[in-house]
Amino acid sequence: MLIRRQMLGVAAALIAFSIVGPHAAQAQDRLKVLATFSILGDFVIAVGGNRVDVTSLVGPNSDAHVYSPAPADARKVADAKVVVTNGLGFEGWMGRLVRASGTKAKVIETTSGIATRKLADGHADPHAWQSAEHGKIYVANIRDALVATDPPGRADYKSNAAAYLAKLDALDRELKAAVASIPAERRRIISSHDAFGYLQQAYCIEFIAPQGLSTESEASARDVARIITQIKREKIPAVVLENISDPRLLERIAKETGARLGGKLYSDALTDRNGDAPSYIDMMRHNMRQIVAALRG
Prior knowledge:
The chain is α/β, with parallel strands linked by helices. The chain has helices spanning 2-29, 38-48, 71-79, 94-101, 132-149, 154-180, 197-203, 221-234, 248-257, 280-296, and strands at residues 31-37, 52-58, 82-85, 106-109, 188-190, 206-208, 238-242, 260-265. The chain has two domains: 25-174, Nitrogenase molybdenum iron protein domain (Rossmann fold, 3-Layer(aba) Sandwich); 181-296, Rossmann fold. The protein has ten helices and eight strands. The strands form two sheets. Strands 2-1-3-4 form a four-stranded parallel sheet, with helices on both faces. It has a four-stranded parallel sheet with strand order 6-5-7-8, sandwiched between helices. The model is unreliable at 1-25 and 211-217 (pLDDT under 50).
């Protein structure tokens, strides 16, 4: 009877393993990757595919500029095999978090190799993903980090990256074609904070921001008055909002100047699956549609 029970127990275990075991094993075998915010997380998913288990510290519709890490975040960093950051000072809190975690993970800066846009204060603009051409550098850096950490996945990572890079090439052509439909003299727009400098460089649209580089900074009354005067004097046609910023400032500017209040742009964060920008490519397409619609008036 004992032997029979043991055999039944083994059989039950085998049946259970056949149902959930391979999936559980696959989940355990996946490379744990921690991305600092949602846009980077989407890049990692595109390159890593089923070989990676991706967590983003700063999730959809959340602002990495003002993020404050929780104690549990140190555990997430410690558990990761690869930590993917933007760099260029975007995640000012990340260095302390990495040190506190004691992680042995490979930590990469995805902006490595990008010709950075310099600001008036001499610092680099960290929002380099706002150009699809730069997005390709992000992807290449992630691909190389995954290959170095998980050599058996080399073929998968390279294949996934190549397919995604082709999509980014197509996206870049699409965005440039959309801008070409707008007369050059109308390609000027007001945005919440200075997050679109690389989009400006890549697609020949001038962005003017009453706030500085970070959403932590506040526009002074003098800055707002200057922007209002400039809009009226130069007949800047449109104002656009952002998903991570308080809309009241731009709503006030639009009201006082008569500039068209355009749709919402996504600068530093994606949306959830049900939103307008659940992926990087969706975000870039959505933003350009909103910009073109606003500038056409």
